[in-house]
């Protein structure tokens, strides 16, 4: 027994694999997309709104594919799905470097989005819920922080590569790097469930000992609300709208580089600013994970929304100051980290783990709808007005509305408990 305790639980190796996969896929592919908008539109003569429509197509594909992905993860080998997902996502991103027409982005964003559903959205939360019964919030935080770690390295590098080698080379380079590193990582570390290694989830024995009502024949993972009941509740709809608004808030990240260049900065500085964004995500993900373990997902989410108003006001009032601009972007990234960390944790807090994949995959449709509406809308607003100020005001309003949505969601949870649906 003593020797077993000294060994590193395999859950941490799974988390390492998740962190490398999500960190590279998000930091090297998804978040970096905004750096290419201005260079591509200027080189090919495409309007910002027209190019940014590929974000909308991506979001539609994501919304359609999320429920399908949830079912596929329950039936097929997780490693095979993730390897295919990485090839679709990073391979399609690399193909952007060969395109000469906006239709290329419209076409290749479809397989890219399908792969991203597995790699960046579904796999991490599901695997962490399977492997971690203790330190769940910390694990979620580390997963999201990984995007910040790799983004802090890759985004300034991408900005410099675009400036020196061009956007085509940079697309191809990033896509290939992600595939070369992530595929072996998936093979070496990822397993769907502890039973495949003859183990229990990390902290399962401790969780059981803390509750007199949980027996060996009734594992803690089965507690919660069924998906059918959850989808009819006010808590679910409040969470759905919360996902829509917080994702719309985070969507502004794709326009940080064009915003910076609109203020008068160059693409290299924009890449550095996005590095600050990634550092903010790193610190925010770890902070929100630890905070949620200590004070709960509800209080942490409300704190995040209030904090989000600070960088918005800074960007509205003093964008011309380089130091303050970078600081504001870093704080903004800190807050946006709450999407990846608090989204899964809020879902678990509201509905439990009984049918988590089915509930979460449906709730994050709000995320996809936000992409359909917010991402291209921001592009067209900037194209028409020549300014991002009105977008920032809208972001501030959404942050305030989200506070009320969080409160509403937890009132809905109480109704579920009172009705006897939580068991």
Give a structural overview:
Helix content is 80%, strand content 0%. The protein is mainly alpha-helical and 423 residues long. The chain has one domain (9-194, 223-418): MFS general substrate transporter like domains (Growth Hormone, Chain: A, Up-down Bundle). Helix 4 (48-75) packs antiparallel against helix 16 (356-363) and helix 7 packs antiparallel against helix 8. This is Major facilitator superfamily (MFS) profile domain-containing protein. It is a multi-pass membrane protein. Its main location: membrane.
Brief account:
GO terms for molecular function: transmembrane transporter activity. The chain is 80% helix and 0% strand. By secondary structure, it is an all-alpha fold.
Q: Which shape, going by the Cα principal axes?
A: globular
Unreliable spans are 209-221
The helix fraction, in percent, is over 70%
Instruction: State the end-to-end CA separation.
Output: 33 Å
| Total individual domains | 1
Q: Compute the gyration radius: what is it?
A: 21 Å
The ordered H/E elements are: HHHHHHHHHHHHHHHHHH
CATH class: Mainly Alpha
Subcellular location: Cell membrane
Domain Major facilitator superfamily (MFS) profile: 11-414
Membrane topology: Multi-pass membrane protein
Transmembrane segments: 12-38, 44-68, 80-99, 105-128, 140-163, 169-190, 235-255, 267-288, 300-318, 324-351, 363-384, 390-410
